[in-house]
Amino acid sequence: MKARFGLRAKFIALIVAGLTVLFAAIATYTIRITTENLRKSLVNESKSFAAFATKPIGDTFVLYKDSGTIRIEQQIDKFADLNNSINDIKIVDIEGKKQFHRGSENGFDPTPEQSSSFEVVYAYDGADLTHIIYPYIEDFGAHRYSIVYTVSYDAIDASIRQLTTGIVILATAALAASILVSYFVINKFFLKPLGLVSRAAINISRGNLGLKVESPNNDEIGDLAKSVNTMADALKADINKLKEVDAMKSEFMMIASHNLRTPLTAIQGYLDNLLSTGQLSPEVRETLQVVAASGNRLNTFAEDILTVSRLEGGEKVMGERSPADLNKLLDSVAKDFTALAKEKKLVFSADLGVNACMVVMSAPHVRAAIWNLLDNALKFTKQGTINLRLQTEAQYARITISDTGAGISPEEIPKLFTKFHRGTSTMEYNYEGTGIGLYITKLIIEQHGGIIKVDSKLGTGTTVTLRLPLTPSSV
Ligand SMILES: Nc1ncnc2c1ncn2[C@@H]1O[C@H](COP(=O)(O)OP(=O)(O)O)[C@@H](O)[C@H]1O
Ligand SMILES: [Mg+2]
What we know:
Elements: H1 7-64, H2 70-80, E1 86-93, E2 98-103, H3 112-116, E3 121-125, E4 129-136, E5 145-152, H4 154-205, H5 220-277, H6 282-312, H7 315-318, E6 322-325, H8 326-343, E7 347-351, E8 358-361, H9 363-379, E9 385-393, E10 396-403, H10 437-447, E11 451-457, E12 461-469
Parallel strand pairs: 7-9
Antiparallel strand pairs: 1-2, 1-5, 3-4, 4-5, 6-8, 9-10, 10-12, 11-12
Magnesium ion binds at residues 372, 375-376, 433, 437.
């Protein structure tokens, strides 16, 4: 069975995906804004630091630059100790050339433009460092040097890492909690009531039309439940109406065919009497014979309709079944049929074997079924042979009726067994019939637990095979 991706799974996937995206977006945004703010305030802080450190550092440098570096270093260290984000201080002239340097190995080399500026210049070095180039103005207004402070973000990065870890842990916990809560809510208010309605609908669709869906919610799902109930009621009403109509139809068919048969039997009786008196002129006799033939046809039709309405009624008609010898039955059918075949100058043979072949059956029905098939063979065969054969095969009796007649086209074969279907390929024969014979035959065979099959080739002939289950004792 193919795995089913049900509503429950879809909802879980949706909640997980949606909330994950939401939490990821919020976390990313928070971390970015915080980082930016922290960096901004660090730079501001460093700028204030530079504002107050530049003058004393510059003064010390100018005073001691020719006599030794110790005092300058001491002065710079004194200030650097005050701010641990500044890890590098460099004094440059206005061409950007290094005059004094305290800190990491190379430091930052500003351009002449940056170092000669009277304004504070910020130089961003990739993502990790910002350099503040602060002009040093001497007491008498000269600007010969600038001081470069390098601000490191290391301290911020550590707190951002801490923040990120915190947010990830919190977000994961919140995500798990939200998924649980949303699942609980969706399950309680949607999935469970929907499941209830859907199971009831499935039950109803299986024919349990009396079932009522209990409306669990007073919302759209409740409406759905109500609609399912209304639908089931409507279906039940329709089905009952159809059953009534069907019963009426069957009854009508029964009455109509019965009422046709009764007067027909009387007419045929009088006709037979008239024909057997022998005091008729040849013209009258011929006319009466035509009337008798037409009456016969009408009688057969009425008989067929009666049979159909009885068979469609099911078991009660076919109830009187008993084990009978199929061999004997076929033998008697063959005797009756031989005369008809001879009349049409066809060769008829029956290979019935000798053994008794016991089948539980309603003999008159099985006889009628086989007679229908032989009748077709006779009707649709102009010349050649008709064969009736009985064999046994495992637990089945197999009867085949084959002819060398008109045959049936392949697209015609599946339609043969429908009620009142008459083949088109045999139209040229101008045969009599109503197209009900094979339908009745199939009904009879199937009600006996048997199978019917037609093999045919247009222009070559037809073979109909019947299989009827043998009584267990004769298998
Ligand atoms: N032995 C056969 N040879 C050729 N066609 C056949 C044969 N048996 C049945 N058919 C086709 O099947 C159709 C249905 O047969 P059936 O139900 O007995 O109706 P009917 O005999 O009244 O026409 C026939 O009209 C005919 O076209
Ligand atoms: Mg027929």
